[in-house]
Every structure is written in structure tokens, then in C-alpha cells.
Write a structure and sequence with these properties.
Elements lengths: L1 H19 L8 H15 L6 E6 L13 E2 L6 E10 L1 H6 L5 E8 L10 E7 L13 H12 L7 E5 L5 H10 L2 E5 L3 H9 L7 E7 H14 L2 E7 L3 H9 L8 E2 H4 L5 E7 L10 E2 L3 E10 L5 E9 L8
């Protein structure tokens, strides 16, 4: 059942990617996001699950908003996290790292963050157990380099290009490690850190909490490691954390973010990234590039699909 479900999820992300990629470089991320949401909402209706959305679209009017029920209504009962279009600004500006992503776990299996942002560190299986989000960048990079049998100078650290990361960037530079700054898209970057051949060794820095949970599902599937702490921007965030009776310094790992035995993850590239090619339109159709992962088997599949415009997909 898991094997079939994983492939069904790919059709969902493919639909969202095909719809939103039409808006690449046109300067209108909102329309790109709307197209992705509309396409995903249609495609997910045919998936043979009774899924409750735990992480979804922020607009309560969306069919993919939090607490919504998706799927064909049949078993199994699962929780769903989805992002029809991560990095709407990347699509609007024709920049890299935009993807459509979805994850499915056991019921009550996703961590629901009380605040919008997390501080994160992500690595692949080789460096699992060697990271500590409370340690300095130097200490973490030394341990990661040792685990991967590299010099620190040969590591590449992926960091979102944000003013809040100026101090982090300087500390990483002082270690001698290389840095890849990205405009958006830390789900793709977290996955890249866990896949051999991506050119990324570790993701560091503050990013969205919803994106963090989706990243954790992917890393759970491949045996990577991921640690986060809640990041507070203002008094409202602090109050939300207090209301949730959550301590600021608490460190959460993959087992805290993704509970239960089942974890499936699928993503399709909208624009190019270190792990996925973006949608390519051709004379008679389009080509999509996706990744599918299952925690139970540790399987990673890359799927290149050719879509014909003459034959509309059916979701039933």
C-alpha cells in the first residue's frame, strides 16, 4: 500500500508544479501559488487516503488549509503536510529552489509548531548523530567533516540569504568552509544536504517552521539528521510559545517532528535546484522531475515524467 501511495503522491506534486511553472519569471508569485493550490486540490482528491491536513495553506478559504480533509475518504487515516508551491518569490523572479511538496505520516504524527520560524541544521546519513544545534558552526563543521572524511574547507554550507544570517555567515566563513547562499527554498536545500552528489553538505540557519517539518519528513525517509529550535521574532511569538508551554531552548529532532512509523515524501521541481530540474515545456507537452521517498524502505526514487497536452490527466 505504501508503495502505491508514494506514487500517487507524485501525481499530486506534478499537477501543482505544472500549473505554477507557467508563472516562472512573470513577477506574480501570488498567481503562481493560486495555480499550484488549485491544481493540487483537484489532484489530491483521488489519493486513496483519509488525510487530515496538519500543515497546509494559511488562507482559511483554501481547500488545502489546516484541518481540511483530503483524499478519496478511504483508509488509511493519515496526517498530511503540504506546500503546493514553496518559494513563490523564486517562481516570480525565475530563481532556483521552487518545488511542490507533500508528506504523509501516521495520524497525529506531525509536530505543529506554535511559531512561524525555526533555527535549523540538517545533514545526511553520513553525519547523522554528529550535529548539535547548540554548538558553534566551527564545532559542527569539524564533526561533519570528520564523519564525511573531508576537510572543513571542502564542505559546502547552504544558508538562506537573509540579514538575520549575517553573523552566521561570518562564523562559517571563518572556518574556511564554502557557502552557498540561496534566495529561498530551504526544503530543497535540506534535502540536498542529505543526498549524495548534490554538492551541499549541511543546511544552517532560520527558516519557516512548516518548511522545517516537511524537511524533517524527507530526512526521516533517508536516514538524515535534523535539529531545530523555535526562533522568536517578537513579543507575539514569545506569547505564542508561552501559551503552548514550550521552552525557547528546547531542541527538537526528527523523532520529535515526525512521530510514528510511516513517513512518505514527494516533491516535484518547479524551477531548477540542486536536487530537481524545473518543469520544461515542449511542443506537445512538458517534462517534470520528481523525488519520492519512503521511510520504511529508505528508497529514494527520481521520476522523470513526460506529460502530453493532448491527453488531460484524470483523477478518479
Amino acid at each position: 500500500m505504501e508503495r502505491n501511495l508514494a506514487l500517487e503522491l507524485v501525481r499530486v506534486t506534478e499537477a501543482a508544479a505544472l500549473a505554477s511553472a507557467r508563472w516562472m519569471g512573470k513577477g506574480d508569485g501570488r498567481e503562481a501559488d493560486r495555480a499550484a493550490c488549485d491544481a493540487m486540490a483537484i489532484a489530491i482528491k483521488s489519493v486513496k487516503i483519509k488525510g487530515k491536513i496538519v500543515i497546509g495553506e494559511r488562507s482559511p478559504e483554501s481547500d488545502l488549509s489546516k484541518s481540511g480533509i483530503v483524499g478519496s475518504g478511504s483508509l488509511p487515516e493519515v496526517d498530511v503536510a503540504l506546500d503546493p508551491l514553496e518559494s513563490i518569490d523564486s517562481v516570480a523572479g525565475g530563481l532556483p529552489n521552487a518545488i511542490s511538496a507533500i508528506a504523509v505520516v501516521d495520524k497525529d504524527g506531525f509536530f505543529d509548531s506554535p511559531v512561524p520560524y525555526m533555527n535549523k541544521i540538517a545533514v545526511g546519513p553520513e553525519a547523522a548523530g554528529k550535529i548539535d544545534i547548540n554548538a558553534s558552526p566551527l564545532e559542527n563543521l569539524v564533526n561533519i567533516a570528520d564523519a564525511k572524511r573531508k576537510y572543513v574547507e571542502d564542505l559546502t554550507v547552504c544558508i538562506l540569504n537573509r540579514d538575520r544570517h549575517k553573523a552566521l555567515i561570518q562564523k562559517v566563513r571563518s572556518t574556511g568552509a564554502r557557502i552557498q547562499l540561496i534566495p529561498d527554498g530551504d526544503i530543497a536545500a535540506a534535502i540536498a544536504a542529505a543526498l549524495p552528489g548534490s554538492g551541499i553538505d549541511v543546511l544552517m540557519g532560520v527558516g519557516g517552521s512548516n518548511e522545517g517539518v516537511l524537511s524533517a519528513a524527507a530526512l526521516r525517509c533517508v536516514g538524515g539528521d535534523f535539529q531545530v529550535q523555535m526562533h522568536l521574532r517578537d513579543d507575539d511569538d514569545r506569547q505564542a510559545l508561552d501559551d503552548a508551554k514550550f521552552d525557547t531552548g528546547t531542541v527538537l529532532g526528527i523523532g520529535d517532528l515526525i512521530r510514528g512509523g510511516r513517513a512518505l515524501f514527494a516533491a516535484t521541481g518547479v524551477t531548477n535546484s540542486d536536487i530537481l530540474q524545473g518543469v520544461q515545456y515542449q511542443q506537445t507537452g512538458a517534462v517534470t522531475h520528481s523525488i519520492v521517498m519512503r521511510a520504511s524502505s529508505g528508497t529514494i526514487r527520481f521520476i522523470q515524467a513526460n506529460h502530453s497536452f493532448d491527453r488531460k490527466p484524470t483523477y478518479d
